[in-house]
Design goal:
Blueprint (H helix, E strand, L loop, with lengths): L2 H11 L15 E8 L5 E6 L4 E7 L4 E6 L5 E6 L9 E6 L4 E2 L3 E2 L6 E7 L2 E6 L4 E6 L4 E7 L7 E4 L4 E5 L4 E6 L2 E6 L4 E6 L5 E6 L4 E6 L4 E7 L5 E6 L5 E6 L14 E5 L5 E5 L8 E3 L5 E6 L4 E6 L5 E6 L4 E9 L3
Length: about 325
């Protein structure tokens, strides 16, 4: 895509991005969506109050991440397969009937992974092709594709004025603004990331370097990289008030790691100091904050469970067992009668 085309596309791209999160939309039943990877290949639907799985729906080959539509009627699950895979679908699930629908065929793109939903459209990464794309559910068409020029474009987040993409193969973060694409060096294996609630900073966990890089969003420059005592850091999330940052780790031996207090780290967002180190019993991956601001849900992938952590004292207050190889999570506000 030439530069003039990029400018033209981005000029019409960004006005639609400031969308209401699914959990803040019209009244409905809030449900926790959790991808069960590996041999399970399902989407678990969980009642976040009773901490119980209420339904499971097939999620296609190698499901990894999930996002819900703003109206709460659909869930989208990326079918990954790794870089270079032949997988070219995104699974679609009807959250009203809890049944899988016809998947989205994104070919000739492959290895979809990161997902976000904004302005009524689905944004995704296609790792093999080193691109990000946008799918319009109303027209059933991909209406925008943009290359990052980076290896393993993996996770994506759509902001009010930017689109953020982590590229662990290149150790960078891409920031797409109107008429510009900026590549910011981070650290080896930059993967899980989040943007602070005030939109000023992006923090990314560098899995291959056991570090975190802090990026100033306005200038698109890294302002600090510091080490963390978490091996194979996988995901990173700010608390809703922006005061703390959670970083999960798969550990030295991957998801089945059980050694040391390095499965979950809680940092002070202002000082970057360590507030708490936690051993959840096995390697940890996905992190999802309760929008009410009281709890965090952490996918303990190696233990086949979710840990529920109170945000006032960072203690484990509940465990949802029997969720097989959990990872990607999302909220859905389903309009049930």
């Amino acid at each position: 895509m030439n530069r003039l085309r990029v400018v033209a596309v981005l000029t019409v791209l960004f006005p639609a991005l400031a969308a209401t999160p699914a959990w803040a939309a019209a009244p409905g039943t809030r449900e926790l969506l959790v991808v069960e990877k590996g041999n399970a290949r399902q989407l678990a639907i969980i009642d976040p109050q009773r901490l119980q799985v209420v339904a499971r729906v097939p999620a296609g080959n190698d499901p990894h991440e999930v996002v819900a539509s703003t109206d709460g009627t659909r869930a989208y699950v990326s079918n990954y397969g790794g870089a270079g895979s032949s997988l070219h679908t995104i699974t679609v699930i009807d959250l009203l009937t809890r049944k899988a629908l016809l998947p989205i065929d994104v070919s000739p793109l492959h290895s979809t992974h990161g997902l976000d939903f904004a302005g009524g459209e689905l944004y995704f990464t296609a790792e093999t092709n080193r691109v990000v794309g946008r799918y319009d559910p109303a027209t059933h068409r991909i209406d925008w594709i943009m290359g990052t020029g980076q290896d393993r474009s993996h996770m994506i987040m759509v902001g009010t004025d930017e689109i953020f993409v982590s590229n662990p193969g290149s150790g960078t973060v891409s920031i797409i603004k109107p008429a510009t694409l900026v590549t910011v060096p981070a650290g080896r294996g930059s993967e899980g990331f989040d943007v602070s609630p005030d939109g000023r900073q992006l923090w990314t966990a560098n899995a291959g370097a056991d570090s975190v890089t802090v990026i100033d969003v306005a200038t698109a420059k890294a302002i600090r990289t510091f080490p963390i005592p978490v091996q194979n850091a996988n995901r990173l999330k700010f608390t809703p008030d922006g005061r703390y940052v959670f970083v999960s780790g798969l550990g030295e031996a991957g998801e089945r790691n059980v050694g040391g207090p390095n499965n979950l780290l809680i940092l002070d967002a202002r000082t970057h100091g360590i507030v708490r180190q936690m051993n959840l019993g096995a390697g940890a991956a996905g992190i999802l904050m309760d929008p009410a601001g009281h709890r965090a849900f952490v996918a303990v992938s190696g233990g086949d469970e979710l840990a529920v952590i109170a945000l006032n004292d960072f203690k484990v207050t509940g465990v949802i067992k029997g969720v097989r190889d959990p990872d990607g999570m999302a909220w859905a506000l389903v309009p049930r009668g």
